């Protein structure tokens, strides 16, 4: 296949932005890499953080952002035998890892000290052709729509991993904080597909309607609840609290409330990243009730396979809007003004 020498991309040239729509060279894959022709890429709030350089991670500059890319493999390195030219592939946040350290050997590739992060430490998916390590791309079924699957490659995998980390079993109850947001709506669907019962926690009637439509057994509105802890416990089986809590909130307070309504021997999983926030829990309560508090980052390679499979079987629906890649600056503006219940954006 003949490939062009140049391509269109959205490039961050300096910390803080803006993104610049310009032509750059088409990269060539290394021995263990593939080149994916990106058909669609999701746009995530993490991409805003990347542009602003908000996180204590090494930020590549200039940088092509994006980490939810779905496309077709058009070239590959000499050592690649796990994927073929013409296969559909997803490029995720975890672009690559060493595969040799203690964490990689135990399927915790996201904790690899040398992990490569799409759209942050290496160029990502806001370009027509994107490089990724062959071992880390997700092979996508060819009958799956690439525009619809793009948000699954980050948001879907992230909440699915969190539910697995909670170790909640089918029939048990998970409280999802931020259930009416983009991550929360997917978390509810994955929880249901995994046989879990959902208590949805969020604010407003619009989100209540959406959560009930997604099958939540109870909706707790933090705007109107006079005692959120007691309301969640009352909505749980036997009034003993949720077996697991998934924290997707963008503010600190919910992270402090969770230990009050999680069931004894329950698990609290922190996924949301409120700025300058801390997790706090009474030591006595945590010890005598044997509560587990843990963080969950992004999924490993197998988590990606499983999350996409749930989607491919029609069990997960991620609403989205499409726009041309040149409109990315406007999409960033809209993301900053919309509520968290807005659909994902997918660029062509």
TrEMBL record:
<dbReference type="Pfam" id="PF08240">
    <property type="entry name" value="ADH_N"/>
</dbReference>
<keyword id="KW-0862">Zinc</keyword>
<dbReference type="InterPro" id="IPR002328">
    <property type="entry name" value="ADH_Zn_CS"/>
</dbReference>
<dbReference type="Pfam" id="PF00107">
    <property type="entry name" value="ADH_zinc_N"/>
</dbReference>
<feature type="domain" description="Enoyl reductase (ER)">
    <location>
        <begin position="16"/>
        <end position="340"/>
    </location>
</feature>
<dbReference type="InterPro" id="IPR013149">
    <property type="entry name" value="ADH-like_C"/>
</dbReference>
<dbReference type="InterPro" id="IPR013154">
    <property type="entry name" value="ADH-like_N"/>
</dbReference>
<dbReference type="InterPro" id="IPR011032">
    <property type="entry name" value="GroES-like_sf"/>
</dbReference>
<keyword id="KW-0560">Oxidoreductase</keyword>
<keyword id="KW-0520">NAD</keyword>
<protein>
    <recommendedName>
        <fullName>alcohol dehydrogenase</fullName>
        <ecNumber>1.1.1.1</ecNumber>
    </recommendedName>
</protein>
<comment type="similarity">
    <text>Belongs to the zinc-containing alcohol dehydrogenase family.</text>
</comment>
<dbReference type="InterPro" id="IPR020843">
    <property type="entry name" value="ER"/>
</dbReference>
<dbReference type="GO" id="GO:0008270">
    <property type="term" value="F:zinc ion binding"/>
</dbReference>
<dbReference type="GO" id="GO:0004022">
    <property type="term" value="F:alcohol dehydrogenase (NAD+) activity"/>
</dbReference>
<dbReference type="GO" id="GO:0005737">
    <property type="term" value="C:cytoplasm"/>
</dbReference>
<keyword id="KW-0479">Metal-binding</keyword>
<dbReference type="InterPro" id="IPR036291">
    <property type="entry name" value="NAD(P)-bd_dom_sf"/>
</dbReference>
């Amino acid at each position: 296949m003949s490939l062009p020498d140049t391509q269109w991309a959205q490039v961050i040239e300096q910390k803080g932005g803006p993104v610049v729509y310009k032509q750059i060279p088409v990269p060539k894959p290394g021995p263990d890499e593939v080149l994916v022709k990106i058909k669609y890429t999701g746009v995530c709030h993490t991409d805003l953080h990347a542009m602003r350089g908000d996180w204590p991670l090494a930020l590549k500059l200039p940088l092509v952002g994006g980490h939810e890319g779905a496309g077709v493999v058009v070239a590959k390195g000499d050592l690649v035998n796990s994927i073929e030219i013409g296969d559909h592939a997803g490029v995720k946040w975890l672009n690559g890892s060493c595969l040799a350290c203690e964490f990689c050997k135990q399927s915790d590739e996201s904790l690899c000290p040398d992990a490569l992060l799409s759209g942050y430490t290496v160029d990502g998916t806001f370009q027509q052709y994107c490089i990724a390590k062959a071992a880390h791309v997700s092979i996508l079924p060819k009958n799956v729509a690439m525009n619809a699957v793009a948000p699954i490659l980050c948001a879907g995998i992230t909440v699915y991993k969190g539910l697995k980390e909670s170790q909640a079993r089918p029939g048990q109850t998970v409280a999802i904080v931020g259930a009416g947001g983009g991550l929360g709506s997917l978390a509810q669907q994955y929880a249901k597909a995994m046989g879990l019962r959902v208590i949805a926690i969020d604010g407003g009637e619009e989100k209540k309607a959406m959560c009930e439509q997604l099958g939540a057994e109870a909706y707790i509105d933090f705007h109107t609840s006079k005692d959120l802890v007691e309301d969640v416990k009352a909505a749980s089986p036997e009034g003993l609290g949720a077996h697991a809590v998934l924290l997707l909130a963008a503010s600190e307070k919910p992270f402090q409330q969770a230990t009050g309504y999680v069931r004894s021997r329950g698990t609290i999983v922190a996924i949301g990243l409120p700025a300058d926030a801390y997790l706090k829990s009474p030591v006595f309560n945590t010890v005598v009730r044997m509560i587990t508090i843990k963080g969950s980052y992004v999924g490993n390679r197998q988590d990606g396979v499983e999350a996409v499979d749930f989607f491919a079987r029609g069990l997960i629906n991620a609403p989205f809007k499409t726009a041309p890649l040149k409109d990315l600056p406007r999409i960033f503006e809209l993301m900053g003004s919309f509520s968290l219940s807005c659909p994902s954006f997918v660029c062509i």
